[in-house]
Every structure is written in structure tokens, then in C-alpha cells.
Amino acid sequence: MSDSILSRPGVLLDVHGHGVLLQGDSGVGKSDLALGLVARGHRLVADDLVEFQCCGGELHGRCRSGFEGMLEISGLGLINLKQLYGEGAVCASVALTLVLTLEPGLSRDYDGLQPVAIDWRLLDVAVPAWRLPYSNQRDMPLLVETALRLNRARQQGYDACSDLQSRLSSLLHKGAA
């Protein structure tokens, strides 16, 4: 493991065994979303500030000492996830797989067909990163789980837009015959 440790703001979770970093402006809902993910069986690594270290070409994130399992929720204050949800609600560290930057509402630059990718690099390691519109009317924990699955599918070479285009071309070709 590299000796260099860099801290970045955000909330890091272990979602289905993959590290997902939630970033965004203060008050956008990162900790609330983390609580929703923990309630669905995922695990918190760090809230507010994440320490990253490079190991074998991957970024591994962990919580700063003394803050393990703690989550600050607006209106509820500081909560200890181990005390409320048990030992399984917290994870010591995880390899970072996906960065999601939460942005309030929808803006015009979302075309609906592709996630909006952003560049994210730390300690010379690039990690897939997307902007994700946040809204209380959306099932955000489900969207995070789906974004992770979508990212894995893309890394394996699958793209739903290309798949649909291929299907439509096939139908057009059959119709012309």
C-alpha cells in the first residue's frame, strides 16, 4: 500500500462489495442517502471525510480514526450505526469503484439516455464518476444501486443505447425484407 493518504469530502459506502463515494454540496442529502443505503443492508465506511490510499492501482477508502460508524443526519443529529443497525452496518475500508456527485434537481444537460460522466482522479488513479440528479421524490438508494450495476455492465462492454440501436436496426432490416 502507498504511504500517501489523501482525504476528500464525501460519504463512502460499501454497496454490494463495491466502494461508492457520494459527493456534492453541503446539505444536498449525502448522509440521508447513506442512511437509506444502510437500511437496505449496505455498509457505511466513512461520513463527511474519507481517507484514501492507493493499493495495487486501486484507491481504498476508510474512515478517519475515532469516527467509525458515525453518521450525522440533519434533524436527528449524530447517530452510531453500529448501535442502531448492528456491526454489519459498518465496514472498515473498501476499494473505490464509482463516484457519484449528487446535484439537486434536474438540469437541461441531462439527456436521459446516458449518465453525465465527470473526470475524477486521485493519487494518479482514475475512477468512473457521474453526476446524479438528487430529489426527495426519487428512490435514491435504488438509483445508487442501479448506477453501480450499470457501471459494472459498462466496464464489461455493455451499453444499453447501443443494444437498443442494434435491436431497432435488426427490426428495420427484417421489415425491409
Automatic annotation (TrEMBL):
Signal peptide: none
Boundaries of every HPr kinase/phosphorylase C-terminal domain copy: 9-167
GO BP: any one term: regulation of carbohydrate metabolic process
GO MF, one annotated term: phosphorelay sensor kinase activity
PROSITE patterns, alphabetized: SIGMA54_INTERACT_1 (PS00675)
Name of this chain's protein: HPr kinase/phosphorylase C-terminal domain-containing protein
Organism of provenance: Candidatus Tenderia electrophaga
